[in-house]
Amino acid sequence: MKDTPLSNCERDFLLKAIQEKKRLDGRQTYDYRKIKITFGTDYGSCFVDLGKTRVMGQVSCELVAPKENRPNEGIMFFNIELSPMASPAFEQGRQSELSVKLNRQLERCLRNSKCIDTESLCVVSGEKVWKIRVDVHLLNHDGNLMDAASIAAISALCHFRRPDVSIQGDEVTVYSQEERDPIPLSIYHMPISVSFSFFQQGTYLLVDPCEREERVMDGLLMIAMNKHREICSIQSSGGIMLLKDQVMRCSKIASVKVSEITELIGKALENDKKARKAGGRCGFAESIPLERITALKMDETPMEMMDVTERANDIVQKAEVPPQMVQSPVVPVPGVGQVGQGLQNTWGLEEEEDEEEEDENEGSDNSAEEQEGRVSPMEEEKYEKEERDGGDVVEISDSEEEEVVILHPEKPDKAPKNTESSLHQKASNKKRQ
Amino acid sequence: MAAGFKTAEPLEYHRSFLKENCRPDGRELSEFRTTTLNIGSISTADGSALVKLGNTTVICGIKAELANPPVEGPGKGYIVPNVDLPPLCSSRFRPGPPGEQAQAASQFIADVIESSEVIQTEDLCIERGKLCWVLYCDLMCLDYDGNLLDACIVALLAALKNTQLPDVTISTETSAPEVNLEKRRGLHIHKHPVATSFCIFDDSVLIVDPTAEEESLATAQLAVVTDEEGRLCSLHKPGGTSLSGEKLQECISRATVRQREIQKLINKVLHSVKTDQ
Amino acid sequence: MAVMEARCSSSVMLREFACEQNFLSQPDGSASFVHGDTSVYAGVYGPAEVKVSKEIYDRATLEVLIQPKVGLPGVRERSQEQCVRETCEASLLLSLHPRSSLTLILQVLHDDGSLLSCLLNAACMSLMDAGLPMSCLFCGVTCAIDADGQIITDPTAAQEKESRALMTFAIDSKKHNVLMTSTKGSFSVNELQQCIAVSQKASEKLFQFYRDSVRRRYSKTL
Asked: Exoribonuclease phosphorolytic domain: which residues (chain B) (predicted)?
């Protein structure tokens, strides 16, 4: 489905508002929208709301063989899925420019920053390591997908627990969640991406652009940073020139935002841990805001099942009893059988008979000796010819064979090449001689 | 005249027949097309069968390979069915990766194998945790004229009954498997599931064994799979017009008759091959 | 094989279920549906412009996409898509929007049993939210028959694993007939008919829930 384009007057209005330091949703220039982090029932499942932008991070793991050049390191795999649910412009199963850009940035932010100890993911060096797969599903697109995705990915990684394993000789045993407590990943630091959008060739700057603002912006700067104020990745796109102190100012803003967000993630993880410990219900079902008019919940409901059995019996008994006798199939030749009321298919009778003859041969193919006896018309012709030749001059029959195979005909003017039809022709040539 | 009517108003054309309780090809509403079965059609496969249901033709070849058992079930083997709908069988299919219908059919066949327990995957294990058989069941449609699922299940069942696996022993010295091709044995077939497909016309008329044209005009399709004990292995109705429990019961009754018919057919054909040798 | 014939215990339960509509800003209609811990998001776009290759001259083209929680959609998702699509096609009045496209995207958030019925319910709620014309509503109910022959409605993932047969039905709201069935495992005719009857009963609860949530949505007071 196609995206709806932004109208000119809307564009002018937005730009004018930005010039007047005003934003559509009433935020200040450096404000983030409200961030909400919730965790799912499983370990490693996390939802992030950034204003109306909503993404889901899901971490999973499996045992695989490691890469050859890194035999004792686990494998990290990241995938941002641009589901068409998030925006009509996203198409299923196609690698768009945006998806490449987002995936690349997430990899740089989380893999290349070495924030996760991949060596601890090794089970048997060179043979078995954990592959950690991070899927980020975009559910609703209202701008700043990258920041939301990076928060979701790192929170999900922090929340994730992998199953415990033990090694005895060659045997690797994976324990289920009930048998042994699963183990969290060891995470050194938490890089978080912060996006800045620039307008009018870098004159105006906004933090956390919404979808409308992203459409009218000239350039985007993404800085991934951890709370120790270490920059993990920095990327500028859109082809704008930025001054040195503009970048410095952005990195300062980013450091403030990152420490705020890190604190928020920490709190969310803490809350979830408490809820799990208390044994209370946690997970997605609890996060539906029931105070909203659009939401409704129904508690566990018992059902009256008084007449179900009677009803079922009724239907079964009322139904016509199928006849016990069925017609007998016809077996015209061994290996072939037919059933049906004399209706012929349109393949035609003559062909049918031919086919059955062939089938007869094929049906008995299981015995190896009979394989020999099976001749196709072409081969038959050949045998016939050889027989005839053999009757006249015994020695020549061998050289005849050779003649055909190695393409050295005695009489090049007459003898044709060794195509299948050539045998027919040759046979007739012989006759003439 | 009739040809023009058929092209211009295909639905009306079919309705005029259904009103008289018959179908354009002369069948009654609950009548199957002629089913032709040939067993052992492919000599290079471990088991094979060719089925014709009217014009619909499906060939099934079974190839057995040795593999490591799955981690989650060390005492089991695998059965991997795959349905191929090449452009050869109908102009509606394009070359390239399998389309939705082929994928849905493969999934359906896999579900039927699992639900009916036609073969217990434990039977395919040679040595626990070390070696097992993988049965690749390739179903190829050669001519598509509707009712693919029924033809596929008959072809699969007949081919499985025809399959002869070579004897495998694990040598004690090298612990490598040794395959004895001379000594072969058949598979143990526990159940005989047979599918019966139906189409619903105009939200009310139920017809059995639809042709490709009837399928495209119908408002709903369903397939009932039953085994010899009269138990249902699958009742697959992907959507379309709703049916009451009573109507479903009618379908099931028809399906049990069909099951007996096909089981008899397969057994008789297999018997004819055996006595021949 | 001695299989105990299934019977219906007096206490058949549906897990708690909840739904939220219209919570995503981008799609034309959206809904999240929760059965116990199983949760699904659904979003609908359309009627909108259709690709020429997919255009149908007398009705709208409906596309259903199911996104699994981990990885990319596979053969299992394809067959679920087929079930949901054909069920929706049967209840939507597609001929009112010829040469246009409808896209329904379903995102699995958590699978704790009865996933297909949850997908169906989320689909129906999102179609309602999008305001698309429908001839009837539909709902999904999953029944499992456990090893003792007890019928369980709305099973959890653990119960599904233990069960010897699993059936999912889509029931329409007009006559409570069966729109879709998808089954696993083998079962007798009588068991099937019992499960259908149970599902029809359960569907009444679900339709009542649909009605309540719509009433709440268009009411003036909470």
From this structure: 31-166, 193-255
Q: Is pLDDT of A388 > 50?
A: no
Q: Are strands C101-110 and C61-67 parallel, antiparallel or unpaired?
A: parallel
Q: Give the residue carrying structure tokens 């379309």.
A: B240
Residue A10 predicted with pLDDT over 80: yes
Which residue of B36, B130, B246 is the best one to mutate when testing the A interface, meaning the one whose CB has the most A CBs within 10 A? B36
In this complex, which of C89, C177, C183 lies closest to B239 when CB atoms are compared?
C89
Q: Say whether B39 sits in a helix, a strand or coil.
A: strand
* Total count of domains within chain A: 2
Q: Do B240 and C172 touch (CB under 8 A)?
A: no
β-sheet bridge partners, residue A85: none
Q: What is the pLDDT of residues C22-68, one digit of tens each?
A: 989 999 999 999 988 899 999 999 899 898 989 999 999 999 999 99
Q: Which amino acid is at B110?
A: A
pLDDT by residue (tens digit) across C134-179? 999 999 999 999 888 888 899 999 999 999 999 999 999 999 999 9
Q: Give the model's pLDDT for residue B128.
A: 84
Ranges in chain B, pLDDT < 50: none
CA A135-A139-A140 angle, to 5 degrees, is 140
Token pair 């349905």 is found at B83
Domain that holds residue A17: 8-191+258-287
Residues of B (85-144) whose Cβ lies below 8 Å from C: 100, 103-104, 106-108, 111, 114-117
| B68 Cβ under 8 Å from any chain A Cβ | no
Question: Is B263 at the interface with chain A, CB within 8 A?
Answer: no
Mutation site, C119, C160, C178, interface B, largest B CB count within 10 A = C178
- For residues B160 and B113, the answer to whether their CB atoms sit within 8 Å is no
| Same domain, yes or no: A281 and A404 | no
Question: Is residue A229 a part of any domain in this protein?
Answer: no
pLDDT > 90: percent of chain C: 67
Interface test with A, best of C70, C111, C213, C216 (most A CBs within 10 A): C70
Contact A302 C13 (CB under 8 A): yes
Q: Mapping DSSP to helix (H, G, I), strand (E, B) and coil, where does residue A44 land? A: coil
What CATH number did the domain enclosing A154 receive?
3.30.230.70
* Nearest residue of B to residue C87, measured between CA atoms: B239
Q: Is B204 on the interface with C (CB under 8 A)?
A: no
Same domain, A64 and A165: yes
Backbone angles phi, psi at A392, to 5 degrees: -85, -70
Q: Across chain C, what does the average pLDDT equal?
A: 89
The ranges assigned to domains in chain B are 25-276
Burial class (CB in 10 A: 0-12, 13-18, 19+), C76: middle
- Domain stops at, among A235, A270, A287: A287
Question: Architecture of B25-276 per CATH?
Answer: 2-Layer Sandwich (3.30)
Contact between B192 and B144 (Cβ < 8 Å): no
What pLDDT is stored for residue B88 in this prediction? Answer: 93
* Count of pairs with CB atoms under 8 A, one residue in B, one in C: 104
Proportion of chain A above pLDDT 90, given as a percent? 41
Q: Which residues of A touch C97 (CB under 8 A)?
A: none
Domains of chain C: 17-217 (3.30.230.70)
For residue A280, what pLDDT is reported?
A: 66
pTM confidence score: 0.85
Q: Which of A85, A307, A316 sits opposite C105 (nearest CB)?
A: A85
For C68-105, the pLDDT digits (tens) are 999 888 888 988 999 999 999 999 999 999 999 999 99
- Rounded mean pLDDT, C172-189: 92
